[in-house]
């Protein structure tokens, strides 16, 4: 199935709108309409702005959840200590296929985001503002919003503002990748961890937070902390934006106060009454079961208490008619292809984990399951960026959430249900051309010819490993562009002429395989 989410899906609100105020009046709030709906905004001093962020418990809404007030103070202290002007960056790079909340804000309420960013820039004395976006629609909207305010990147302006386009990729939205792209480099994590508050854009202290965070700051600065706290929980006041997709009748972005029951939000989108599982926090998040859904409310603490996560606000239920491990396999292949290709856990671990999950699905038995657990454990905490850890979390959560299905595949050869492709993934060809993106080709083996020499695994270990039976096991994922040359070399070096590159097929419904079919395991036997 796999229908990618539109840039701007349906938008709903529970209770009184804050971020989505005016959406019932007009499709996009230009500057004039924005001021009519939200009113003017006065500058706020640095420490006062940080206290406001503390008073409303404002945390980053991009997934990490770092306290905004602490980040603001850290940038200010670094700028004063070093005697340099800081930079403010709005991270609107939303490369995860299950997230659209920031894209909705950037398209429909760009001036609310700019309000928060300009408040922070004024408080810090910044003279540079950068907005990073991933899509054509968001780039057009932001450029128009800057023009409406008379902001540009021309020399001589008191504040220079510009829009930077990043590829629509999972790793491109990480803070370090955004900073690298702003500096003219590839939109990939640099392989070393540095605090943006100390050294970010151009080496200057940089305040980087995601689009919704700045919009929340603008709302709070207008109405004050007391009124802001009228909505939501005492510990996590205000509203949050959620993207609901997966097995829902109506994919949507919804603004809800914290404390609203999660089951009510799912009902609003037309999710199954008793979902088989709900993926919370997106593809770097955690699965929860139907019992946890009935316990949880929309909040960071409540979701964590039942084993879930708020993350970037993506909520994806699946129904009882699909194979959950098959759904996870599709996402695993995508996560493996999204690798930055710069460290072992990404280059080797994620393709191996995707291949290991394929082994389990295709009848590999307890040995395949144990091998998969070992690979996932080896990936944790060793990556140069957050992508391996987030992906390992998804794998580990999948294995712990669907134990009955796992037992059916490991012991009985399958659960008997097809994979319907209910979790959204990008359409083919969605990415900009650069290293590490999928090439659209995959490796395949003619098992009637393969003799298990193992030369292919030596040449491209990121995609091929040797199984316990002495035959190669291929990652069930598209060959990344930066590995295509070595994949071709592996094909050419195969003594038995058993290896080939072929066009990756579009996803199809896949029924569970019987236990006797071990072709995908690389056993070398039909």
UniProtKB/TrEMBL annotation:
Residues passing through the membrane, by range: none
Any Pfam family the entry gives: Complex1_51K
Domain of life from the UniProt record: Bacteria
Keywords: 4Fe-4S, Flavoprotein, FMN, Iron, Iron-sulfur, Metal-binding
InterPro entries per UniProt: ComplexI_51kDa_subunit (IPR050837), Nuo51_FMN-bd (IPR011538), Nuo51_FMN-bd_sf (IPR037225), Nuop51_4Fe4S-bd (IPR019575), Nuop51_4Fe4S-bd_sf (IPR037207)
The keyword Cell membrane is assigned to this record: no
GO terms, biological process: cellular respiration
Record domain NADH-ubiquinone oxidoreductase 51kDa subunit iron-sulphur binding: where: 325-369
Chain spans, region Disordered: 505-526
Cofactor(s) needed: FMN; [4Fe-4S] cluster
Keyword DNA repair: no
GO terms assigned for molecular function: 4 iron, 4 sulfur cluster binding; metal ion binding; NADH dehydrogenase activity
Similarity comment: family membership: Belongs to the complex I 51 kDa subunit family.
Name of the molecule in the record: Oxidoreductase
